[in-house]
Automatic annotation (TrEMBL):
The protein, known as: MFS transporter
PROSITE patterns referenced in this protein's UniProt entry, alphabetically: MFS, SUGAR_TRANSPORT_1, SUGAR_TRANSPORT_2
CDD domains for this protein: MFS_PcaK_like
Any Pfam family the entry gives: MFS_1
Upper classification of the organism: Bacteria, Pseudomonadati, Pseudomonadota, Betaproteobacteria, Burkholderiales
Organism this protein belongs to: Paraburkholderia strydomiana
């Protein structure tokens, strides 16, 4: 017969607690019998040690991705925005002062081509060198040094006695400008919460169009009163002063510090600024993205599986910047040749930058919510439509300003969109290099845009023909956005799975 189970008397929790001191428990195996309260203490100790070990580990990537948008993120965004405002002012300055230089130095339009192109060539070289330097020495050092350098070179440019010296000084100014832009955006993207990343990058790039628009409005006031040199003076003094501000308030990228295993105290300090008491001296930092030992960032981004996306980004930004800098460099002159005054031409050119500023904000919001390449394709298609309308229809000043506003909305925003796509695609060990090299290659498109504009103007093309020619590079950028988007959608899941193992 089965043995009957004895019913245990019902005890209150206080009675069970008191009885615990006299009850024993046998641990499985050959362990000796221990009192129950000792077993509970041992288990509690193990749980506490496990919790302490987990508490000492902090995944930097996951931490930054999941934080709410705080005052710290606002600080990073404002500082990046200010850097790009100064960049935009200096880069586009030559386009606004070009008619005054032609008038004062009595030179032809074609003679200004080398001056405009040398500045853009400096931008390309600065971007190509600034990215690898930032991946090696840090984003913060490169951004601060670049801002100070381009401010100093712009200041010296104002005393140029002839076109040859001015061309050299604009090249040197471009070196600093090229290094500062992509690295400021990279630093911001590495601090941005995941759901705001594209928005944060594109808002920062609003600074470029704000600075360019400010240069247009300021030039209408300063050039007539103080000469074209005053624009270069302003573009030099302000960045030099701001570089000292950055030295005190701009932090290094937390992801860079975690990847390089250097500056532990700086990493703890900056993470605690984002969220107080999130890290201390005992915290073990974990980087979700691992460095590829023995392989340089440049070699990584041009090899599989990144090659196709890298080439698409290069071609897309090349064509986009060809369009933008064709307009930035020659639009004031094209408009004056269409029977508008110099001040009216400056207002038209400024409206392109105002439209770009609004477009940067909107495209960042769209890219955080929809597939990035589809947003880019749709915006570029709209740009081609506006270019055709602008080329085919005659407008009054108000109508011309409106159409240029819409064209600038599309072309400047997609110009920024390529940077957001690169910052979202490349992993940390190659992000600064990948973004900067894309920018550097794109700058050769800007150089081409300036040269092509000079050649077409020398052929006496009409306003309509000049604007219609923009549909060619815009079409090529659409194809690049499609290819890059399809390939990145296939590669990113593979990269995430590799990083998690």
């Amino acid at each position: 017969m089965p043995r009957k189970r004895l019913q245990q008397p019902s005890l209150s929790w206080k009675q069970r607690a008191r009885a615990g001191r006299f009850m024993s428990v046998r641990i499985t195996g050959s362990e000796p019998v221990r009192p129950l309260h000792e077993a509970v203490r041992a288990r509690t100790k193990i749980n506490k040690e496990t919790q302490m070990l987990a508490a000492r580990q902090l995944n930097v990537q996951e931490f930054l991705d999941t934080r709410p948008f705080s005052a710290f993120h606002w600080k990073i965004m404002v500082l990046g925005l200010a850097v790009l405002i100064l960049d935009g002012f200096d880069v586009v300055a030559m386009g606004f002062i070009a008619p005054a230089i032609i008038r004062d130095w009595k030179v032809g339009q074609v003679a200004l081509g080398p001056v405009l192109s040398m500045g853009l060539f400096g931008l390309a070289i600065g971007a190509l060198t600034g990215g690898p330097l930032a991946d090696r020495f840090g984003r913060r050092k490169v951004v601060i040094g670049a801002v100070f350098f381009f401010g100093l070179m712009s200041l010296l440019s104002s005393w140029s006695p002839n076109l040859a010296v001015l061309s050299l000084m604009r090249f040197l100014t471009g070196l600093g400008l090229g290094a500062s832009q992509p690295n400021a955006a990279t630093l911001a993207s590495e601090y941005a919460p995941k759901k705001y990343r594209s928005m944060m990058v594109t808002v920062i790039y609003c600074g470029f169009t704000l600075g360019a628009a400010g240069g247009g409005f300021l030039s209408t006031y300063l050039i007539d009163r103080h000469g074209w040199q005053s624009i270069l003076l302003v573009g030099g003094v302000v960045p030099i002063l701001f570089a000292f501000v950055l030295a005190f308030v701009l932090p290094e990228s937390a992801k860079f510090l975690a990847m390089k295993q250097g500056g532990r105290n700086a990493l703890v300090r900056v993470l605690n600024q984002i969220e107080p008491s999130s890290a201390d001296a005992s915290t073990m930092f974990v980087a979700a993205e691992r460095a590829q030992a023995g392989r340089g960032a440049i070699r990584l981004m041009v090899s599989k599986p990144h090659r196709a996306v890298t080439l698409a980004l290069w071609v897309g930004l090349f064509m986009n910047l060809m369009t933008v800098y064709f307009l930035n460099s020659w639009l004031p002159i094209i408009v004056t040749g269409n029977h508008f005054s110099l001040s009216e031409a400056a207002l038209v050119a400024a409206m392109m930058q105002v439209g770009g500023t609004l477009g940067n904000v909107v495209i960042g919001w769209e890219m955080d919510r929809f597939r990035a390449h589809r947003v880019m394709i749709g915006t570029l298609l709209a740009a081609s439509v506006f270019a055709v309308i602008l080329a085919r229809v005659s407008f009054t000043l108000a109508g011309l300003m409106t159409m240029v506003f819409l064209l600038g909305y599309c072309t400047n925003s997609t110009n920024t969109g390529w940077t957001a796509m690169a910052a979202n695609y490349y992993p940390t060990e190659m992000r600064a290099t990948g973004t900067s090299w894309m920018t550097g290659i794109g700058r050769f498109g800007a150089i081409s845009g300036a040269y092509v504009g000079a050649i077409l103007l020398s052929l006496n093309w009409s306003f309509g023909q000049l604007i219609m020619s923009l549909t060619i590079p815009i079409g090529a950028a659409i194809v690049a956005a499609y290819i890059g988007g399809r390939r990145s959608n296939a590669v990113l899941p593979i990269l995430r799975n590799a990083a998690s193992h």
